[in-house]
Design a protein that fits this description.
This protein is mostly beta strands. It is built from no helices and 25 strands. The two termini are 33 Å apart.
Length: 285
């Protein structure tokens, strides 16, 4: 890369041959972004920078191939409600309407229509967490018709095959992790609770599997500082969680990716010790 980056976003283009890396918390919040081209194995700076240096933001690719950069935090500890659109054809960013409130460490999920984005939870000021959620619809942000059951940060969200969104885990970002889960319905724009996970998890991942089930991997219970090894499967038909295979090492801040519909790769992360992890593990379906 052309810049040192962490707490940034990495988003694949629709053709899967390019990646957009945006923002960073190193050494100050960066406005810069760059594109990786697998054909040339090279990084190139975007034609314009973002309007705001940001980290702990989100990036969501829309159906029209544009990438929405949402919220985040600045090096001055200002939390943003601002939103920008990256357009691949011009290789540049454009400001669009801001969210109704600032957020960082939140989730953003593209809904089935390919243009509506759901954002949930996050911190809106230092150590102040929200249970609110918003929808980006036709250029404007509107609050959902009810809030989540808990204020959440470090939670995960995933779009299910039926068009609903599963939100699970997270915590208050300091001393509590949750096992609770809920479903967001785009039809009613409301949240409803479902059965909780068996383990408290913050800083974990949810991965949609080809079967329609969802794999919960890793995380930490902030109250006990324990890292669950057991992974769980959510069944959207029975609305239940079940234990599945175990990780070899507990981890947070990791990434998971579905590989060719045959396995889930869990990459790197942090296990509570002083050094970051380089190890990877594969969950075979």
């Amino acid at each position: 890369m052309k810049n040192f980056r962490y707490s940034y976003t990495l988003t694949a283009f629709a053709n899967s041959t390019k990646l957009l890396a945006a923002g960073s918390a190193y050494s100050s919040a960066l406005r810069t972004a760059e594109v990786y081209d697998s054909a040339t194995n090279s990084w190139t700076s975007t034609a314009s920078n973002m309007s705001y240096g940001r980290y702990s933001h989100s990036a969501t690719r829309l159906k029209n191939d544009e990438i929405m950069i949402i919220g985040g935090k600045s090096s001055a500890t200002i939390i943003y409600s601002t939103v920008e659109i990256y357009t691949p054809s011009s290789n540049s960013f454009t400001d669009i309407n801001s969210m109704n409130m600032p957020r960082h460490i939140f989730t953003s999920t593209l809904l089935n229509d390919g243009s509506t984005v759901l954002v949930t939870g996050g911190n809106y000021s230092n150590n102040a967490t929200t249970s609110t959620a918003e929808l980006y619809i036709s250029g404007s942000w509107v609050f959902t018709n009810n809030n989540m059951a808990h204020p959440r940060v470090f939670h995960s969200a995933v779009l299910l095959n039926d068009g609903n969104v599963l939100i699970a885990g997270g915590g208050n970002g300091i001393s509590l992790s949750y096992s609770t889960a809920e479903i967001f319905s785009p039809t009613t724009r409301t949240f409803a609770p479902v059965v909780s996970m068996k383990y408290n998890r913050a800083l974990f991942t949810l991965t949609l599997l080809p079967s329609g089930k969802v794999l919960a991997t890793g995380g930490v219970d902030l109250a006990t500082n324990t890292y669950p090894l057991v992974c769980e499967l959510y069944d959207p038909v029975t609305h239940s969680w079940s234990d599945t295979l175990m990780l070899n090492e507990g981890r947070t801040y990791h990434e998971t990716i579905l590989l060719n519909d045959t396995s889930v790769l869990t990459i790197s992360g942090y296990n509570g010790e002083s050094t970051r992890m380089r190890s990877c593990e594969r969950y075979k379906l």
